[in-house]
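Data availability (excerpt). The following record was deposited with the supplementary files.
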Amino acid sequence: MRRRGNTLDREAVVAHPGATGLIGSDPQPPPPSGRIRRLAHALRQHKTIYLLLLPGLLYFLAFHYVPLAGVSIAFMDYSPFLGLSGSTWSGLDNFAKLFGDPEFAGTVRNTLVIAFLQIAFAFPAPILLALLLNSLLSERVKRMVQTVVYLPHFLSWVIVIAVWQQVLGGAGALAELFQRLGLGSVNVMADADTFKILLTSQVIWKDVGWGTIIFFAAIASIPTQLYESAAVDGAGSLRRTWHITLPGILPVMVLLLILRLGNVLSVGFEQILLQQPSVGSEAAQVLDTFVYFRGVLGGDWGIGAAAGLLKGAIGTLLIVAANRIARRTGSEGLF
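Predicted structure:
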């Protein structure tokens, strides 16, 4: 009878493939076919998650995808009074005027120099700070330092520039100290020769603490058994950092570097705009301020849109190239 019963049970399971073989269990429905049906199925099953994603999706749709229609201005003799439908097409005339503009060459040079300084110094700064704080044994000191270095990130550039002006400006603390020592007056904030270094220092001071959050999370994901085994084998702190910590956070470093290259030509519009009157346009004119002064204030919308389109195209090419290089060297890359 048992063998007969088992045979009947097996026949029932074969007859109903969706059944789990357990009494009282509900059969699982097969996954829907087709992309639209799978999407509708996912929306029904995960309504709460998609509702939480909706504000972010609406933000990108309204401020990033819909404005892409304005790219056509780069190929038009655009007038805001006529609009996109009433303005005439000019082909590549705006790009020809852009490359023939004598100010554009200096603008590109300033942008590239500032971008190189930020990649070379501002990008590795959070990594070095995270490694340094991770080596501290006192959790209390570590939390205190983290809190202090995080605070500048929440200040606006207006406040940051005002603080730096009070310290390094012509009437700041450093100038007053030099005068009391008989060394003459100094105004670092108005020095065009060191302006690009000043910009990079401000970026590091403002955002280095915030950038360490991601690297702290990456370091925390490394198994502690690796450090214990290395310590047992006699590896010091530097060797553990070099052979365990850095390889462990390397994928995160590559990912953030690829994302940073996409915005490499965006070197800080508000930060530079606030300080440009002090050092002049020759030292502080970058692509973002060029688009603002020439397109928005000057009314030459076509050249401004052409410069913005060129910057976006270069950023896209850099992301694709960096991602391809990362994948060929063994990293996962961005896509």
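Summary of structural features: The first helix runs from residue 2 to 15.
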